[in-house]
Every structure is written in C-alpha cells, then in structure tokens.
Write a structure and sequence with these properties.
globular; 27% strand; two-stranded antiparallel ribbon; four-stranded antiparallel sheet; alpha+beta
Length: 115
C-alpha cells in the first residue's frame, strides 16, 4: 500500500523496540495524524508522554508510529521528562521549520522492561 498516491510504503511493525519515526507534512493532509496524551506519574515516577492514537492513512501511520508509544526525543532533544506544553512547542517548531517531525519512540510495554 502506498501513502497518499506517493511512493512511500506503509511501515507496519508489531515489534516494540526503540525506533525512529519521521513524519513529513503532506500537501493534501491536515496535520500529521498523531494524537498525544500527557503523562501522569505512576507510583510517583514520571513517565514520558504517550501517543494516544494514530489516524489511518496519515503521515504518522506511514512513518510507523503506534498507539501506546512513549515519546523519548523530538529531533535531537530528549523530551522523556519534559512538560507537555514544552513537548507540543518543540513539535510545532520542528514542523514549521523543517516541514517534518523526527521522533524517537518506544512502546509502552517495552519501556517498563527497558528501564
């Protein structure tokens, strides 16, 4: 399957390791199709912000972003424990400047084992 008539294939993975996902803005799609939920401390330990869901046929889906991924980095900046507003600001700035978002993600279930 190809993304929006382009030559960009959908990346489907059920693997849960740490991975880099780069989402480019599409001219005929509004946004990147990524919904983020702020994290809440678990047992007094702060956890990263999480991808709540990914829209079908979106740049995020084609980049391999999965629901329940934790966001570790935006570009080169570590955001694992940043405030939610800071995370959103960094994403908006990168989108505006580069017309893409480069995220380092890890699946929620793997994150616990990884730490």
């Amino acid at each position: 399957m190809l993304a929006n008539g382009s030559q960009m294939p959908i990346i489907v993975s059920d693997r849960s390791e740490l991975r880099r996902c780069v989402m480019h803005l599409w001219p005929n799609y509004n946004g990147i199709g990524l919904n983020i939920k702020p994290s809440r401390p678990v047992n007094k330990i702060q956890i990263p912000h999480i991808v709540k869901d990914v829209d079908l046929d979106s740049p995020a889906q084609y980049a391999g972003v999965l629901s329940n991924d934790y966001i570790i980095k935006v570009g080169e900046r570590l955001v694992e424990f940043e405030k939610f507003d800071t995370l959103l600001k960094l994403i908006r700035e990168q989108l505006k400047k580069e017309k893409k978002i480069d995220l380092l993600l890890i699946n929620q279930s793997y994150y616990t084992d990884f730490k």
